[in-house]
Amino acid sequence: MRIANLLGIELFKTIRRRAFWVTLGGFAFLLVVQFGMIWYMHKRQAQRIGFGAIAPPSPGLDLPNAWSPIMGATATLGGFFIAVCVILLVAAEFPWRTTRQSVIDGLSKEQYFGAKLLLCGVLIVTFAVVGLVAGGTFAFLDTAGTPANGWITALDWQMLGGTMLALTGYTALALFFAFALRSSGSALGVTLLYLVVLEPLIATAVHRVDALQNAPRYFPTRVFSELSARGQYDAASRGGLSIMQMARGMQPQEFFDTRLLVALGIGYALLFVAATYGLFRSRDL
Amino acid sequence: MPIISTQDLTKRYGGLTAVDHITFKVEPGQVFGFLGPNGSGKTTTIGMLLGIINRTDGEISLFDETGAHGLHAARQRIGATLESPNFYPDLSGYDNLSVTARIKRVDASRIGTALDAVGLTPRKTDLFRKYSLGMKQRLALAAAMLGDPELIILDEPANGLDPEGMHEIREIILGFAAAGKTVFLSSHLLHEVERTCTHVAIIKQGRLLAQGSVIALAGGNASASLQAPDLGALEREVRSYENTVAVSIEDGFVVANLRDTDLASLNRFLTQRNIFVSHLSLHRQSLEDIFMELTQDDATGAAA
């Protein structure tokens, strides 16, 4: 079966599923609230300054600098919502037994799995676009005139790649739990447990072992969250951040080598996908 | 060329053998009933045929195709539904069939024909979760017939239906058979299978107990009741008839277990010996009798 057919089947189902619109809408709403607030505060501040009020200047959302918080929010908030979306769309097919029916109707297990990967790809692009458009709209409104160094810089493109990779990582993680647990409720619960409790707990435990003190940095969600951080791609911003942290008496943050970070992100995503496929292939439907 | 052929098909879950070295064949045009009590291994066997349950051992051939790629290609010629109807609850009946049509690469114009055939056209825009059980079963049949498959596999198609619903499903299945399709259906409803199927296989606790045509299985165990003025003479002559297996006198009738169902031949034999019967009737065993006999024999055998 051609890729276009498989994608067509998934899109036909997805646009009719409430879970897709609710998660995408929830993500867009929170971004609009977050960036709308920043834009509104900045606007009010500007008005007060105009009336002679004394207030510290707010950086606002001027482009291209605003891409950094926009992509950060897209990766973290989007990572959460895309994970929920993937679980609701994929795991529900097991109790409904539509997974087995799809195979009965003629898809091979490989084709079914491939169709889900295509769906994940579409979701990653969709969530990224929604994130960038929601944040970018306010940033565009907040930017006076044409920025001297352009609307988007080479650094922003690098961050966009990192953001997409972070979304891919969260998607792969969610896909694994969806296929492993075969129930939306269980998969959501275990994913949240992993993100909020399990990984931080293991990180804390590992951090106490001298030889493994640095190991938690390499844990999947740490890697995913670092992928959209500006400091990972920008030496100047990294230096500034270190100076600020030291001035506050804090330990300066350690950054990954960019190539290592990207390799880890890709590696984790592939590992989750491979484990998911192995599990799906070996188990009965 | 058999449409379905299995050789020593086996499925084990840990220490439990759900299907135990099952070998059977389904020929083109047969309406094949796969009979067995609940939990006997029917669904597991069908699951292995359809590729959704990995077999532990044994061979499967569909349309003479074996091996992973061959079987996948052969399964494109099958329409099937397993256990309860499996559809997206928040999609309409029509949209659910659209998904099936896209998977089977069937033109969307065929959906209307399939819905018409099962009488669901007036409710095609209703959500699947709002359908009654009978409507869900009918939608499953519509999905199975999309793509004009050569083999239709149905797992307990009349499960949970009222008599009217059962009648509707039976008519649809007989319609498939009349159109020359091969039908393989599993059921524990013996009378439904007897009314629908040409051939049956009987399974219990994962083991195949018998298989053959319904007529052969039932006819092979026929009995005749006879009456004549002289019961003693009648009994003697019937006993000497070549196709008689056993004879007894019960309630004023001579009851003979026969190897075949040719009563005309028996009557001719008696007339030639000056025995003129006042009553002659054939009692063919029902599928239920055969099933009970086989499964009880099996239980006795197992106990012994």
Report on the structure:
The complex is a heterodimer of chains A (about 280) and B (about 300). Chain A starts with a helix and ends with a helix. The relative contact order of chain A is 0.12. With about 280 residues, chain A is mainly alpha-helical. Helix content of chain A is about 75%, strand content about 0%. The mean pLDDT of chain B is about 90. Chain B has a six-stranded mixed β-sheet with strand order 5-6-7-3-8-9, sandwiched between helices. Chain B is elongated and about 75 Å long. At the A-B interface, helix 1 and helix 4 of A face strand 5 and helix 3 of B.
Quick recap:
Chain A has 285 residues and is mostly helical. Chain A is built from 10 helices and no strands.
Short descriptors:
A: 285 residues; mainly alpha; 10 helices; 73% helix; B: 304 residues; alpha/beta; six-stranded mixed β-sheet; four-stranded antiparallel β-sheet; 11 helices; 13 strands
Runs of chain A in which pLDDT lies below 50 for 5 or more consecutive residues are: none
Largest interface: A-B, 25 and 30 residues
Could you state the order of secondary-structure elements of chain A as H and E?
Answer: HHHHHHHHHH
**Adjacency order of strands in the biggest sheet of chain B:** 5-6-7-3-8-9
Give the terminus-to-terminus CA distance of chain A: 21 Å
Tally of alpha and pi helices of chain A: 10
Computed structural class of chain B: alpha/beta
Topology as H/E string of chain B?
A: EEEHEHEHHHEHEHEEHEHEEHEH
Overall, the morphology of chain A is globular
Low-pLDDT segments of chain B:
none
Q: Main beta sheet of chain B, described?
A: 6 strands, mixed
Largest sheet of chain A: none
Helix content, binned percent of chain A: over 70%
Total helical elements of chain B: 11
Instruction: Measure the end-to-end span of chain B.
Output: 39 Å
Oligomer: heterodimer
CA-atom Rg of chain A in angstroms: 21 Å
What percentage of the residues of chain A does DSSP assign to strands (E)?
Answer: under 5%
